[in-house]
Amino acid sequence: xxxxxxxxxxxxxxxxxxxxxxxxxxxxxxxxxxxxxxxxxxxxxxxxxxxxxxxxxxxxxxxxxxxxxxxxxxxxxxxxxxxxxxxxxxxxxxxxxxxxxxxxxxxxxxxxxxxxxxxxxxxxxxxxxxxxxxxxxxxxxxxxxxxxxxxxxxxxxxxxxxxxxxxxxxxxxxxxxxxxxxxxxxxxxxxxxxxxxxxxxxxxxxxxxxxxxxxxxxxxxxxxxxxxxxxxxxxxxxxxxxxxxxxxxxxxxxxxxxxxxxxxxxxxxxxxxxxxxxxxxxxxxxxxxxxxxxxxxxxxxxxxxxxxxxxxxxxxxxxxxxxxxxxxxxxxxxxxxxxxxxxxxxxxxxxxxxxxxxxxxxxxxxxxxxxxxxxxxxxxxxxxxxxxxxxxxxxxxxxxxxxxxxxxxxxxxxxxxxxxxxxxxxxxxxx
Length: 431
Fold this sequence. Notes:
Blueprint: E1 16-18, E2 40-42, E3 44-50, E4 69-78, E5 82-84, H1 93-102, E6 106-112, H2 120-123, H3 127-143, E7 148-152, H4 170-185, E8 190-195, H5 212-217, E9 220-224, H6 256-265, E10 273-278, E11 280-285, H7 288-291, E12 320-321, E13 327-328, E14 333-335, H8 336-341, E15 356-360, E16 365-370, E17 375-378, H9 382-395, E18 399-403, H10 412-421, H11 426-430
Parallel strand pairs: 3-4, 3-18, 4-6, 6-7, 7-8, 8-9, 9-10, 10-18
Antiparallel strand pairs: 1-2, 4-5, 11-14, 11-17, 12-13, 15-16, 16-17
């Protein structure tokens, strides 16, 4: 779901992102080179860890040796220029930080998120508000001995969940806040932002064309390349497409490929872009006549029953109420482990008997369909994570960040993207 020093992580044998030219050295406040294309920086293998799912993935079961950064989620914004961990098990955060540091992993907290971004806008609306918010976040970071903060504002200048405070000046104010926060925290404190597949909305209502000033204060951005398609559409589509430039005009609404192009064109260097990847998918109620072709293969982009949302996995609820008080039915979200638990996949991640499967060559993502339940799921598997890992390596991206750490099963997805992106395997780490 949303850092300035490029210092080596030291204790981890990490691959580096290489661009042409001389090595990129650690920045300080007086020598900022964030926009340089001549760089060598350590890669990022990250995930968001949700406190409210800690009973499913306990801290003791986290594969710490496979991450460089873990991001505790979420600290929600409050109208008093402060943040709250209510709902995210605040008592667990000190243990999270301690275990991360014991395993040479950078411990971060994500501020905001889909349901926690309500008061970003008013907390950054004036210079005084910015000063107060900077001090609140700085005190929070110091209190918990954090290595960094991920700012996951969804989305500046746009409504988002439905009850956010919104201003046409949100993106400009966000930059002013980040600049003040960088000055407060210094060059070694990690600052990131989790961002949509196109740059934020500016004061004119369009995507901003220049984010180079953001690049000077952020270590990187996590491009949230997921929820590209979902129940808000009229047809089934890939949740997290690697590519959409090969899709037709009505379904080409975002992908890793187009996101890299958009953010790079706006001035965010590739080595400051981390690809957000999804350990979950979306389910749809689809009639067999729409889902399955006469030859028995799955149809791409079939229409689905918009009035009948299937229940997702055990993390889903038949009734959900958001922070705005809006009551809805199930989300239909299926985590990777949920697909195994639900009988769509085998424990090794392969397709279960009786399930129809197709791998879309354009989006590089799979779909499964159960004719008995008439449920189709768009998700990511080891092959699609491998394709994204190769894209990271080939495109000189900084690394990956998975939503969320608890969505995987036996590290099937994590191991695939690490290997394809060029991270060492466990045996190499032990040498």
